[in-house]
Amino acid sequence: MTTPGRRSWIGQVRLRWEYQRDLATNPAYDKNEGIYTPQPIPTPCGCDEPHRMDATDWSGITQPITITYRRGTEGMGNVLLRGFQLADMLTSLGAPVPIKVQALENLHRAKPRGEILIVLKTAIRMKSEPILRAFARRGNTLLFDVVDGLVPEKIEGLCDAYICSSLTEDRFRRHRGHHTIVSYQSPDQRTPVFPLEHREFAHVYYGLSENARHLDKLADLDAVEFSEMPPHRSSEPLPSVFDTLRRYSHHYSVRAWNDRDGFKPMMKGFFAARLGAVAIASAEDEESRLVLGDDYPYLAKSSSLEDVKAIIDYARDTHLGEEWHRAVDTMRELRHMSCPVKTAQDLVAGLRGL
User: ∠ CA 178-180-186 to the nearest 5 degrees?
Assistant: First the structure.
């Protein structure tokens, strides 16, 4: 079954327009300066090990923190999650220093000095090199947050540290001598949290079909196309896709790679954990193996069709049994490590170590 959900290019243009409209009418956003001042959020910790919002250690952090992105990319998921939502969370955690989100081009004109600048992936490109070098010359601390993007070799050494949303990127950066901070990519903070409960076996792939293998060869696998979330702090309701996804016990995550891919966070697993499901993945994907563990019961030996079919059959045969309970324990750990409160606190801990 394929459920339509991905926006057309016209829909994507509309989403960007809505985002600009919502920002323009948001009193926390200064349109002339391109600055968003984050607002505290009421969202509590959504994992099974509640984190104390007032227990964040900010000691030693005295520089203002600015998160910056390329102008015109305000509606991209990376900017929403690692920019606007992160800034709101840092403010909610009691940041003792000013926090803001500002477009790179506007920030460059402001000539910041002595700040911590978190540069998001849309701004990490060769065209930004002169601006990034100017930031460094003025005594700012530069952190690159690439997520799944690629860094031009010529500028990869410009930053003081990399914020890594995946263990594979962390290993790669450290091997190359870079300082790293591991802060996993959280699902959108508005994603509902469903209990890890007994459900009838049903498995689904949720996302863009181009990013998964064997979808056309797995007849009993439901494929639900990705639905865009509303703009940041929008009054638009959440997409109805969550009502559809709630019934699935397993989420399929056997990745197909393309030339545009850098390091990929385990987002399918984190998302499944938040929705109360377990993941079916492949050991051929190093990030899946590292995050889930070699002994995770629903990790295919490889991404071949034969091995993928075998692990799906195994998941079906062992559903609600001992293996499923072990998988549920692992998903609870994933829900904990990708909780928006936890990932923000991990970032703060990393900043203290700079």
Answer: 145
